[in-house]
Each structure stands twice: as structure tokens, then as C-alpha cells.
Specification:
There is one protein chain. The protein is an alpha+beta fold. It has six helices and 17 strands. A hairpin with a 2-residue loop joins strand 6 and strand 7. It is globular.
């Protein structure tokens, strides 16, 4: 056996041993059989935690025993740490001078970032509310009409949000406007890479919803009894339209079992607004 193949085999065995998984069993098989995965959580930065409770919907399950973060929240934290160059075994804190907007007001990722001075978050409380207003103690923002001034944010996080926006590409344009040159939009959406075009399920025409397919709803933490409409499922069209907006976009297919991130559909997108040259503060913009 070639030496490189032998070394790869021993590395795989060592990784399985560290995760507490028998050799020959994939992490996904082990987790779906009801067994916890051991590792370090990229959301809370805690080593030696257990990720358990995985279901067939891997992205939304597998809670961290320390902070409760699910698989998808760990994907987002993994990507953000990469851009901040922040080690996994540290609190997920923003550097001085870094301003980050997160389009959610609950969950483990929100809780980890909330103590940072540069952190801003919002919910969505309806079309009739003015962007930037406060509702029930929380900021309201409409991604199609953000209240932030041009070029004032270093990061924007949207995790499975844009499929619930009637005009997702108008929202991408607003995100581009609000980011500083060199800033990052880190996001997840339902994405099917084999699909060339977006699956547009509903449109807004003259203030009314026109359904192009059977109405599909996802759970909404702000309105748990109602759910929230899915306007589109994204295909490769999204990447070309982001390029037209001005973004440089990378697709990260994250699978890091030792950080509790499982599954073959673990896509995180990092869209960057072009830098404006040297002299911008913050190493995350370099």
C-alpha cells in the first residue's frame, strides 16, 4: 500500500476515535442512529461538547450540549470565524471596530454575538412598520429596504432568511449598498446546485401574492403558529445574479464532524463587496 494511502487511513481512524465513532461508520450514520458526536462547537467555542438529537433534517438538528446551537448555526459560525481569523476554541466575539448586522433576534448564534459592542440585530414585524423602528423591544428591518446608511457594515448575516423575502435580489442589492467596501454577506438559503434557475414559487403583483406553485411555509420563531411563506428555492442562477450585483461570491460546502457540522448539503455562501483599496480599517476587510 502506498505510504500516503496508509497515512490517510490512520488519520481517518484517529478522527473517528476523537469523535467517539467506530471505524467504518460515517458520522452521519452514527448520529442518525441516536449517538452523540464529540467535538468543539464553533458557536460557543466550547471543547468537549456533545452534538446530539440529529434527525433526517441534519441542517436543523444536532444541538450542542453547551449552547444548543443546531447544525446550520454552526455552519454560519464556522464561516464567520474563517473571515475573522478567529480560532474555534475562543468565544465568538467581534474585534474592536467591527460592525455586524444579523437578521435574527434569537438562537445560539445571536446569543454568542450579542455581547459584542458592534453587534446589531433585527426581526421582521410586517410591511407596515418603518425600517429601523423598535417593536416589542427589538429592532425591525426589511431586507428590501434596510435603514442602514451606505457602506456602514462590515458583516451581514442572513441564515435561511432570503427565501422568505418576496424580492430576494432587491434585498441582495440593499445588502451590497449597506456593506463597507471589502465587507462580507455570509448566508445560507435552500440551494439546489443541480438546478440552473431559481424555483420561483410566488410573486408579488400589485400588492397581491400570485402563487406559481403550492404554497410552502417554514417555521417562524416570531410567529410560531403562522409560519412564513417560501417565495423561492435557489439554484445556480443566484450565483450569476450576485455577480451582476457586484459581489464576489464563494460557495463553502462545510462538513466538519469534529465541529458538529454534518451532511452533504451544508452550503454556506460568502459574498464580498469589492475592496476600495488600501487603508480600510480591520483585518477582516483585507
Amino acid at each position: 500500500m502506498p505510504l500516503a494511502l496508509a497515512a490517510a487511513g490512520w488519520i481517518a481512524r484517529l478522527q473517528h476515535w476523537r469523535l467517539g465513532i467506530p471505524h467504518g461508520v460515517t458520522p452521519e450514520e452514527w448520529a442518525l442512529a441516536g449517538n452523540p458526536i464529540k467535538g468543539t462547537c464553533p458557536v460557543c467555542g466550547t471543547a468537549g461538547v456533545r452534538f446530539s438529537g440529529f434527525t433526517e433534517n441534519l441542517r436543523e438538528s444536532g444541538a450542542c450540549s453547551q449552547c444548543g446551537a443546531a447544525n446550520r448555526q454552526r455552519q454560519m459560525a464556522f464561516a464567520l470565524r474563517k473571515k475573522l481569523r478567529l480560532a474555534t476554541r475562543r468565544p465568538l466575539a467581534l474585534p474592536a471596530g467591527c460592525r455586524l448586522y444579523n437578521a435574527e433576534i434569537s438562537g445560539a448564534l445571536h446569543a454568542a454575538l450579542a455581547p459584542s459592542p458592534g453587534y446589531v440585530c433585527s426581526g421582521y414585524w410586517g410591511d407596515e412598520v418603518a425600517p429601523g423602528s423598535t417593536v416589542n423591544g427589538s429592532r425591525h428591518e426589511d431586507l428590501e429596504h434596510l435603514s442602514f446608511a451606505d457602506g456602514t457594515l462590515d458583516f451581514i448575516l442572513t441564515s435561511d432568511v432570503l427565501e422568505h423575502v418576496s424580492d430576494a435580489y432587491r434585498a441582495h442589492g440593499e445588502i451590497f449598498r449597506a456593506l463597507r467596501p471589502g465587507g462580507w454577506h455570509i448566508f445560507t438559503v435552500p440551494f439546489i446546485p443541480q438546478m440552473p434557475n431559481d424555483d420561483v414559487r410566488a410573486l408579488r403583483r400589485d400588492g397581491e401574492i400570485e402563487y406559481l406553485a403550492e404554497a410552502l411555509y417554514h417555521g417562524d420563531p416570531l410567529r410560531p403558529t403562522q409560519g412564513i411563506l417560501v417565495w423561492r428555492i435557489f439554484g445556480r442562477e443566484m450565483l450569476s445574479r450576485l455577480e451582476q450585483t457586484g459581489f464576489s461570491t464563494a460557495t463553502m460546502q462545510v462538513r466538519t464532524p469534529d465541529q458538529g457540522i454534518l451532511g452533504d448539503n451544508a452550503f454556506v455562501f460568502t459574498a464580498r463587496k469589492p475592496p476600495a483599496g488600501r487603508g480600510r480599517r480591520g483585518r477582516w476587510l483585507s
